[in-house]
Specification:
228 residues; Molybdenum Cofactor Biosythetic Enzyme, Chain A; TATA-Binding Protein; six-stranded mixed beta sheet; 25% strand
Length: 228
């Protein structure tokens, strides 16, 4: 299964808010064997949300959209998703019922709080107000981290893939000097290798067979310079 993540918010693009949602979602999905192929941030603009969601839902098994839910003027994510799928918004009675159970009177709710794309499956916001939604392969979650995490947990079982295993080897050599060993370990074992330079070079080995990954990492440790 492959997934694209779309985070919505002018404050993210301006650097005023750290995009922890994308990192957390990527970690959760990777642990479930799901391949995260794209992480994209778009402004609070209906046309941008619609364009990106429409493009990604055609390319990936699922799209997760976070942020911009609610009834205020800049909460336009539901409108953008509805536009991407060619449908309108309507007040969802089930979502309103949940809110009433949580102590919110319909009369006191701001207009638009429970508006979802027509045909969407509502997702209850257990720690906030604005509901989420699932429509076709698009999952719409809140931007508030606590709300997003709780809501994702309610649909996490709908995301699965091939389990991958990972080992890290730290080499005390320049990255350019390691190219021959990186090539060799790829040729000897069914693993992918990522190289991340810094004070030392972290070599990340990944594969679908745990024993192969462990053996490849052991071989690589024997063939690079390391500080014990």
């Amino acid at each position: 299964m492959n997934v694209a993540i779309v985070t919505v918010g002018d404050e993210l693009l301006a650097g005023r808010t750290t995009n922890t949602n994308a990192t957390w979602l990527s970690e959760q999905l990777t642990e479930r064997g799901v391949s995260v192929e794209r992480v994209t941030t778009v402004p609070d603009r209906i046309s941008d949300i619609a364009r990106v969601v429409n493009e990604y839902r055609a390319e990936y098994d699922a799209v997760i959209v976070t942020g911009g839910l609610g009834p205020t003027h800049d909460d336009v994510t539901m409108e953008g998703v509805a536009a991407a799928l060619g449908c309108s918004l309507e007040t969802h009675d089930g979502a309103l019922a949940w809110l009433e159970e949580d102590g919110y009177s319909r009369a006191d709710l701001t207009a638009g709080t429970a508006d979802l794309p027509v045909g969407a499956r509502p997702l209850h916001n257990e720690t906030g107000v604005a509901p989420g939604a699932v429509i076709e392969s698009v999952y719409v979650l809140p931007g508030v981290p606590a709300e997003m995490r709780t809501m994702f947990d309610s649909v996490a079982d709908e995301f699965s893939g091939t389990q991958t295993y990972r080992e890290v080897v730290v080499a005390d050599e320049p990255e350019s000097a390691l190219l021959d060993r990186i090539t060799a370990v790829r040729e000897r074992f069914e693993v992918s290798v990522g190289s991340y330079p810094g004070d030392s070079v972290r070599l990340s080995l990944e594969g679908t067979d745990e024993e192969t990954v462990l053996t490849a990492a052991a071989w690589l440790r024997d063939h690079v310079e390391r500080t014990e």
